[in-house]
Design goal:
By secondary structure, this protein is α/β, with parallel strands linked by helices. It folds into 2 domains: about 260 residues, Rossmann fold (3-Layer(aba) Sandwich), CATH 3.40.50; about 180 residues, 3-Layer(aba) Sandwich (Rossmann fold). About 35% of the residues lie in helices and about 20% in strands. It contains 18 helices and 18 strands. A 9-stranded mixed β-sheet has the order 3-4-5-2-1-6-7-11-12, sandwiched between helices. Strand 9 and strand 10 form a beta hairpin. The protein binds adenosine-5'-diphosphate and alpha-D-glucopyranose. Alpha-D-glucopyranose binds next to helix 1. Adenosine-5'-diphosphate binds next to helix 1, strand 13, strand 14, helix 13 and helix 14.
Length: about 475
């Protein structure tokens, strides 16, 4: 029997994107169809973020939040995707934040309830048919409780990032419409007196996955469990790590239209032209002897870019150039802005979210820096590798699982790992990459290994298919 699986997510490429989860939900279902799973996606329609065509209405109904009805329309977007159209919730300039509504405005619980109730009602009425609903991150953590309450499809819940838990005041629980006797308690939604959507997802789903085996092993420990390690330990074998892949058609330097010049592992010669274009775009000196260190990132505590900021004087002494494309934390961005003023032509800062600049940085950088304090999987380092930027990363989560260290003797491995997310440890790792840089044969061996590494979704999709079978036969 072909399992019918609906993925439900607040983000999905090409309809919306804040981080890697959007890439995953955009690519995994197609890979699943490739291994015989009937996988589809339900995600919001954000008219301000997605300007493409949308298709026919496949359903329309009210969802009740608290004591108010909200009209929802389900719109087809291609053969495998349905969009939830609810303008009050989703006609916004951003997926999670709404800068137009001012400081302190937060109705994210309302928005994610609209998505989850749309799914619930669509399953109840048979508008969407599922054997399994696959929920992504805290914003869909109530849905496993809904389908359980309804005797509906089985559920799988994937943790992309435990740092965002969807914690709201307990006084908002009634908005879910669930019985508090059954669902509000320590073994359900309740989290230190508040309401935690992440915890609900963990405790109500039939199976919980996260996006790398190393992260799955880390988060059951108090240092990395973000307060939920107890609940996670309690899952035992029902917590499984499955590494993400990448969309190798979308992220292919040989065919990428966002790159000024194509190149690939068999002929990386034109990468140097991309590097020149990146230098030009960011005002860096045209100095090919200088290794160009790149970063593309959300700028948050997780990503550890402050560590790079603090070793910039050292990197300058070593003759490197540095480019950051990022948006987020103003104080960290200011640090790089200051550095760009202090070392003109050697440090470049690109602020904001820009898909085509991201491709240019991956394609132009010689080395890609990712000093994450924790990293559930990380896609950026995989894009960087495919685009010939050698990763220097911390030995955390998915970075540990996707970046085998380069070994000079055997010539194997793809990058450099820092044992700790400290400035000192990370500096040591970058230093090693900078030592390899002038040893051209070794450096290009490492780069070729990185570019040839297989990050296809196929193996992970097969693993999910196996897990779906287990859930259905349990
Ligand atoms: P996370 O999801 O934690 O942000 P990932 O490495 O999984 O980390 O995914 C990040 C994704 O977001 C990548 O596709 C990366 O290219 C993209 N990205 C991050 N910052 C920017 C930016 N400023 N502009 C364009 N793309 C960005
Ligand atoms: C989260 C994590 C990142 C992961 C992505 C996709 O945003 O921070 O490590 O790659 O989700 O699973």
């Amino acid at each position: 029997m072909t399992a019918r699986v609906w993925h439900v997510s607040m983000e999905c490429v090409p309809f919306s994107k804040v981080g890697g989860m959007a890439d995953v939900v955009g690519a995994l279902p197609a890979a699943l169809r490739g291994v015989g799973v009937d996988a589809r996606v339900l995600t919001p329609y954000y008219p301000q973020l997605y300007r493409g065509e949308v298709g026919a209405e496949v359903g329309a109904f009210d969802v009740w939040i608290g004591d108010a009805p909200h009209r929802v329309r389900l719109l087809e977007a291609g053969p495998h995707t349905v969009l939830v159209d609810q303008p009050t919730a989703f006609d916004r300039p951003g997926v999670y934040d709404d800068p137009t509504r001012g400081e302190g405005f937060d109705d994210s619980l309302f928005r994610c309830l609209v998505l989850q109730l749309a799914a619930r009602v669509a399953f109840q009425r048979g508008i969407l048919e599922a054997d399994i609903v696959h929920c992504h991150d805290n914003h869909t953590g109530i849905l496993p409780a809904y389908v359980k309450d309804d005797g509906g499809p089985k559920s799988v819940f994937t943790i992309h990032n435990l740092a965002y838990q969807g914690v709201y005041g307990a006084d908002q629980f009634w908005l879910t419409g669930l019985s508090s006797d059954r669902f509000y308690g320590h073994s359900a939604f309740e989290y230190y007196g508040d309401l935690s959507l992440m915890k609900s997802g963990l405790l109500h789903a039939d199976l919980v996955t996260t996006v790398s085996p190393s992260y799955a092993a880390e988060i059951v420990r108090p240092e990395f469990g973000q307060g939920l390690d107890g609940a996670l330990r309690g899952l035992g074998e029902r917590l499984v790590g499955v590494i993400n892949g990448i969309d190798t058609d979308l992220w292919n330097p040989a065919t990428d239209e966002l790159l000024p010049f194509p190149f690939d592992a068999s002929d990386p010669s034109r990468k140097a032209d991309v590097t020149r274009a990146l230098r030009e775009r960011t005002g860096l000196n045209d100095d090919p002897a200088s290794p160009l260190l790149g970063m593309v990132s959300r700028v948050t505590h997780q990503k550890g870019l402050d560590l790079v900021g603090s070793i910039l004087p050292h990197l300058m002494r070593r003759g490197a150039q540095v480019v950051l494309l990022g948006s987020g934390d103003a104080s960290i961005l200011d640090l790089f802005r200051g550095a760009a003023g202090r070392w003109p032509g050697r440090v470049g800062l690109l602020t904001g979210y820009d898909e085509s600049l991201a491709h240019l940085v991956y394609g132009g950088a010689d080395v890609f820096l990712m000093p994450s304090r924790f990293e559930p999987c990380g896609l950026s380092q995989m894009y960087a590798m495919r685009y010939g930027a050698v990763p220097v990363v911390t030995k955390m989560g998915g970075l540990n699982d996707t970046v085998p260290p380069f070994d000079e003797k055997s010539g194997e491995g793809v990058g450099v790992l820092a044992d700790w997310a400290t400035a000192e440890s990370f500096q040591g790792a970058v230093d090693y990459a900078l030592d390899l840089w002038p040893r051209k044969r070794l450096f290009s061996q490492m780069r070729t290994n990185a570019m040839k590494r297989d990050f296809d979704w196929e193996r992970s999709a097969a693993r999910y298919a196996e897990l779906y079978e287990q859930v259905l036969s349990a």
